[in-house]
Amino acid sequence: MDAPPPASEAPGDVVGRVAALLRAVAAHEPSGGRTSDLARAVGLARPTAHRLLSSLADAGLVDRDPADGRWQLGPELWFMGSAARARYDVTALAQPVVRRLAQATGESAFLSARRGDETICLLREDGPFPIRSHVLHEGIRFPLGVASAGLAILAFLPDPEVEAYLTRADLAASHGPAHSHEAVRERVAVARSDGWALNPGLIVEGSWGMGAAVFDSQGAPAWALSLTGIEHRFAPARQKELGELLLREAHALTTALGREGYPGRAPGNREPSHLRKVVARP
User: Fold this and answer.
1) Taking residues 209-225, what's their average pLDDT?
2) What is the mean pLDDT of residues 103-123?
3) Which pTM value belongs to this model?
4) CATH number of the domain located at residue range(s) 11-79 in this protein
5) Residue 109 has pLDDT above 90, yes or no
6) What is the model's pLDDT at position 206?
7) 252-269: buried (b, 16+ CB within 10 Å) or exposed (e) per residue?
8) What ranges do the domains of the chain cover?
9) Fewest beta carbons within 10 Å, which of 136, 141, 185, 237?
């Protein structure tokens, strides 16, 4: 039988551990995760992870498959998500934009949202080109600065926020030396100059991506549109074409979201000038 939580365990610590466990369970969907794998993913002892997961199951926040013992997200999360959807779900406005990108380019197109130090993929639409990259899928998370969506968002944060993030994030340890602080800073500078971000196969060799930030009504990069495909489809001669198309659609979505006041903010549109300049080009 698991021991009760230590009396000295602060409530904030428990909340953080529970949130980390729920994110780890979500990352293992749809097949579910074993207790040991989930514990390892969040840096908890297995008995502690099991105790917390059991409590979450009692609350309906996770389920456990009696056949194989794997943990999956529970029904209460669906109800909570449905209740929050009206405030945070941008997919209804973004879906036609993502579909246009996929059809116009032939590639796989995506919408990702910033959540703290990560991006979460919300939408995927596959274009007609028969060879596809499967690095991204709905629900996958990446740290800011990793993958084109996360790099596009990071690039348009203020310099102090970028530096604070790089100080606390060890991207090289989790994603290899190509994500050293200096390498990420260089890609941020290029993305700011171009207006769009490029991932030249840094996650999976041969799978390239490009992304453009989408801004909330306060002018902050809160989402990103991106395209992924095989390397030869992202040759330098085509990057400018794809980048400008991404920026045009990012402008369209930023404008639509600003008009609707997402997420729960006053309507407005203070997008950075690089989007307006691209749209103004003949």
Assistant:
1) 93
2) 93
3) 0.72
4) 1.10.10.10
5) yes
6) 86
7) bbbbbbbeeebbeeeeeb
8) 11-79, 89-280
9) 237
Q: Which residue has the tokens 């203070």?
A: 270
Determine what percent of the chain is predicted with pLDDT higher than 90. 62
**Amino acid symbol at 120:** I
Domain 89-280 has CATH 3.30.70.1020: no
CB 224 within 8 A of CB 152: yes
Select from 144, 159, 156 the least CA-distant residue to 254.
Answer: 156
Q: Indicate if the pLDDT at residue 7 is higher than 80.
A: no
As a whole number, mean pLDDT of residues 101-108 equals: 95
* C-alpha–C-alpha distance, residues 123 and 12, integer Å: 32
